[in-house]
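Work package 3, deliverable 3.1, input record:
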Amino acid sequence: MSEIIGIWIGAFFTIGIYSFLYKENPLYRLSEHLVVGISTGFTIAITYSQVLKPKLIEPIATGEQGAWLLLIPAILGILYITRFFPSVAWLSRYPMAFLMGAGMGIGFPLSMKAQVLRQLEASLIPLYEAGMSWEIVLGNVVMVLGTLAALIYFFFSKPHKGPFFGTGSKIGIWVIMVGFGATFGFTVMGRISLLIGRIQFLLGDWLHIIK
Amino acid sequence: MSIWEKMLNVDRRWIFLLIGIACVVPFFTPLGLPILPSAEVLGIFDYMEDLGPDNAIFVGFDFDPGTAAENMPMGVAVLRHAFARNIPVFVTAYTPLGQGMAAMAVEELTNASSDDYFMYVNWEDWASIRDQGIIDRAGIEEAWTAEGNTLPENARGWVFEGRDIAMLGYLPYFHLVILGMSSSIASQFPTDIGGTPIEEMPMYQEHKNLREIDLAVTNAGSSACVAWITYGREKIGLPIAFGVTAVMATDYFIYMQSGQTVGQMGGLRGAAEYEVLLNENGYNKGYGKAFVGMDVQNIAHLLIIFLVILGNIAFFAGGFNKKTKLKGRR
């Protein structure tokens, strides 16, 4: 029974959200606000039950060995709330500074490796090697020249004129446009997929018209 | 107002209506257009084919309900593959709502009303077998059936909680959780979401940290992919596979090209390709929701292409490329 009620509520608010396509209306507003509110409430409940309770409150309450150390991150976390009180809002900078420092220290070397050095390495490929098929050679040439042309487009210290910077930046903008086109195509697919998901829910789970 | 201008100023609600019709009608008249698996999806499938009960994988439900239409079929397909091959699966979530998504995926695969479902055996239900010291997968199933448990006709196999699956759930700052799990999974998740101690689970006893894990598949509608690549792949060399939304797909192809991932499922299409592979290889008699949705997707795309062409014809035929702006409302 609870499942059926859930499906009916889901169907009601799905229609509520899509009613915006006709025009803005109170049902859409209600649905939108409920999504935000319920998501936040769910997040708070999950965070309390899976993080705060087992990892902070229970160890301190049961006097677990070394649990007093947990008070340090707990106090740092509480300092975030001081942002709501202008006279002591400056205290919230401490947890932020800690997070930024720790985040940079932990993340920077690995991020550089994963997202910069590895990508550079992947761009340094031979244009031609014995035994390569013509499709691979063409792909390698397009990738290397396309990368260089796109980088030239974003090089602003020289005017985009002449055979190198002028032509290079023109090819670069075309390469970027092709990238945007591919992203747009995928975006259309993504948005239609979300609509398909809702239609499958309405026609299948709710109305049982389709399997 | 010329015909071209009228075309460009058409009330957008007519277009919404057309798209709506295009997305409903194909459900009733399936076209069955073929879906050919791409190299990116084959990469994940083939990798999974080499794994078995002695290996273990992570499957991340790293998305919210907003992208569930795309990410959920991917997660369900990978879980089905893992269950069918008895590969132990640690299930995690990058977001709080992702934990609910993971539970829904397991529910879908273990729902007795569907064909090819898996019989879920709760942790407590097979305690007597553990008490006998039997923890290997084949031995557990043998002992379980020897106790008089039989697999229903429309079921495909058993899923033993703690041996085949551990629902670890959500933790915040997941990149730090990944780092922590490279030393010990139990240090980050002492219990599963039901409160069962991880250290008691046979699958944990054989795979105590990420270095002993063979693959992490992140089904993401967020930056979870980057976290897994940065802290899992680059730190300890953990093989990673992506299941990403279509919007994200182009951003993440670079990790395929650089060899940092074993494969990628992009959007509903990627999920449908995986479902086709499952069907062709006998893991599922039918198909999942993604495959069914692809017929609809194709028709909707054809309509959008037609409208884009029509709009461009009106734009150029009306000479609007020579004017600064269109008349009328836009």
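The CA atoms of residues 232 and 238 of chain B lie 5 Å apart.
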